Amino acid sequence: MAVINTLKKILSSFNGQTPSTGKEVEDAFNDNFETVRQFVNGISNQLSALDTALRKLINDEINSLNTTLRQVISTEVSNLKQLINNISDWEQTKW
Length: 95
Hints:
Elements: H1 2-12, H2 22-31, H3 33-94
């Protein structure tokens, strides 16, 4: 919406007329430079905030996956130890 409003403001400089030269467009841009600058800064800030949020989300997901993987490995190691103990016990009773 901000893009449309910024463009409308620049185009309003032409009073409904189509600019006939690049100079007219440049003049309209210069007249509205502060609006364009604020718009660009706003977009930059939004992109920065999005980047930060995505990094946090990705880091949270990685941490969650690491925790889950550690739990699975720990469980499997315990299961293997128990299996080895069972086999060892079985071998002792067999002979």
